Every structure is written in structure tokens, then in C-alpha cells.
Amino acid sequence: MQAKACHNIIPPRLLPPAKLPSTASHITLPSHVPRAITITTSPTHEVYTPVPEIDDTITAFWDYQFLFVSQRSEATEPITLRVVEGAIPTDFPSGKYYLTGPGLFADDHGSTVHPLDGHGYLRTFEIDSGSGQVKFMARYIETEAQAEERDPVTGKWRFTHRGPFSVLKGGKMVGNTKVMKNVANTSVLQWGGRLFCLWEGGDPYEIDSKTLKTIGKFELINNNCESLAEEQKFNGDFLDVAAQILKPILYGVFKMSPKRLLSHYKIDTRRNRLLIMSCNAEDMLLPRSNFTFYEFDSNFQLLQSQEFDIADHLMIHDWAFTDTHYILFGNRIKLDIPDFIFELNILLNSIHKWSAGRRRFIGEPIFIPRGTTEDDGYLLVVEYAVSTQRCYLVILDAQRIGEKNDVVARLEVPRHLNFPLGFHGFWAPSNTSNGNLPNFESKCKDSWSMLEENMVYLGNSKNSR
Ligand SMILES: [Fe+2]
Hints:
With 465 residues, this protein is mainly beta. 10% of the residues lie in helices and 31% in strands.
């Protein structure tokens, strides 16, 4: 899943959630999108309307729509999921899988937002191998925008922020300063014993890991780095002058922070550091990019920060690091929804593949190590079976990908709690003592990213990271 970075946060042209395939223009479509996920709080009011397969193109169009249907219900108490295939392995390391992403795309007043602007909806799967059970919870992140847009009494929604990627029904294209809408929907992190949901271009929100209640906004970089904005170099060139003009508008009118935190962090397990990156607010309107990298210890103390200027307007989302480099990926604009997991063995030069099946998509896989060898462990992945409108948690044996018995267990989310496509997740094993937990992202995902994206290498840090 690749989200657009903050540099194009005010796109020149608003993007629709999906484009109808041109080949389908002569085909009569259903008059409305059937609701896979209903606006209910009770499983007794389920509405399930299977989508007929008209042809591949049309079916694919509707399948995409179902990945982004609002779920207004929350599961604030743990619900035990039904195992529909296999069983939780007894050697599965117990822990909790957090998955965040957008939850709400349409309000009660006719406005619809782009999936990237959907309010953050945090899902958790708590796996207990002792009892062989998985407990599910889901809750909206109570951001400032959510508090403004959801009526606490009636539960009705009215979008007032158009969002960086959306426009509201009857909303003004120009003059609407409520563009920035931190919905904390992009990634989730546990660090220093605390849990956070992050957004692409704003402060994280801290979450209570047991109840999933929102504790509040956590000003990680602006608390630590108040002087950074003032310390910026001013060379007096045209872009610097333009930046000086833009800053009061962006900070004052659009209420943007000078440094906008991005959602992709890295954990340096060897040095026990949290690495995170910000961009400058004004760079989204200028043909240049400024990135600041921060390194924190487990007490959230800033150990190191370094700023880089790149004379290019870059679309940055994910990145990597080595002992001496930060590595940025210049992304294309796209929304990838995979339906395969590929395991590429560089020693044996072999490829193994697992597919959820036709009209079934998957989210970001997460690797859960079991032993000491590199691929000894499990892959956790959420499956979106749009053909039957169900969500599943699937456990795969990483050493058996492509074999008959690669699926170890499949657990079903109750239909009334079906959820839209998630973005990024975090695995928190329950046996760590200090809460500083490594994020085991899938090597498969990393491989895709590396292959697809152009890399921009940033030079040696003066602090020799
Ligand atoms: Fe991402």
C-alpha cells in the first residue's frame, strides 16, 4: 500500500476513489453500490448483497469499491474470532497485531472523501497460542478532526474538512482552509511502552493499547525540536523568498506545523532507536524538498537530527536506513492492493507464491519470527474476500509458502464488523519486557518496493549513523 506523501497534499486535481474502466462505458451499471458493510451496531441488521460478475473489468471496479466501504461500528470489547480453517499453532509467539487504515469514507450529508482521507480506524488481533484463540477489537482514533466531524450524541458524521485529497458536496474548492485533516490512519507504532497511530504529515496520536481509546496528540518532533524551524538556512534565493512568503499562510491560515512528521518510521533494533522523518510544510508548493531525520531513544529523548535539502519536488513515502545512510524512495502515485505473496530465495534462486484466490485481496503481510533461522516463522496477513464480502486473518507458515499446507489458520471477522482495507500494521509480541518492539515487516513487501521505486540516496550523516 502506498499513500501519497505530504508534498502533494493539495493536489492540482482532485482524484476520485477509483476510475471506471473506459471499456465499461457502454455497460449499464447497477444504480447504486451495494453496501458490503452496513451502518449498524448489531449483527442482526446485516445486509449482504453479493455483486454479480458482469465481466472482469466491471467486477474489478466493484471489488475496488468494496475495499473502501465505511464501517461505523466499533468493537470496543474483545470478540473471539471463529477459526474457519486450521488452528493457531501451539508454537505461535503470542502477541497483538495492530492494523490501522481508514474507516469512514461517506458522511450523513452526502459528502464522500478519498480513501486516504478516511478517519483512522484501528483494528487489533490478539493471538494467544495457549488457548488457540484470537480476539478482535476495532475503534476509531479520536483525532481533533474526528471530534469535530462526529456528533458524540447521535453518532452522525458531517465532514467539515475537505481533506488533502477530497472535496465535499457543495464545498468550496477555493477558500476552504480546512484542508488539513490529521486522521491518524496510516501507520501504527509501539515504542517506549506506548502505542501511537501516525498520519502522513502531522503529529501522532497516542492510544491506550488495552482499550484502544485515544489518549491524545503526541508532539514528538515539535516538542523536541522547537528551534529547528527558525534555524533553517536562508540563502536569499528565489525559493527562500517564496518560502518566507508561504510560511505565515501555511502556519497561520492552514494551521500546518513547520515540520510535518511522516508516517513511515524505522526501528534500529541494534541501537534501540526510533528513526522518524519530517518534511517542511512549504515544500509541497515549491520545487524542492527538505527532509529532517530524527533519532530517539526509548524515553523519546532526541539523540540526533539531521536536515537534508534536495533540489527536486519528490514524492516520498517509505524509506530505509543502513549504518551510514538514509535511503529515500521516490514513489509513483499509485494505490497498490496486492493479492499475492511472493517469497524470493536469493540463495536457491527460487520463487514461491501464495495467493488468497480470485477476487480476494490482501493487506500488508507481517513476519512473526519463531526460531533463529531467517525464514523460521509465520506470516500474518488480512484477507479481504470481496467476492463474499468477508474479512479474514490468515496465518501462513513462512517456510511453506507455495506448498499445499502453507495456510496454518484462517479466522473469520464477523460480517457486521467487516472493515475496509488497512494500510500499515505492527506486531507486538507479548513476551518483551520493555515495550520497545521491533517491527517485522515482510521481506516480500520490501522487495516489491525496492523493485518498483526509484531510490534517492542521502549522503553520509555527519554523525555517522
Ligand atoms: Fe505506506
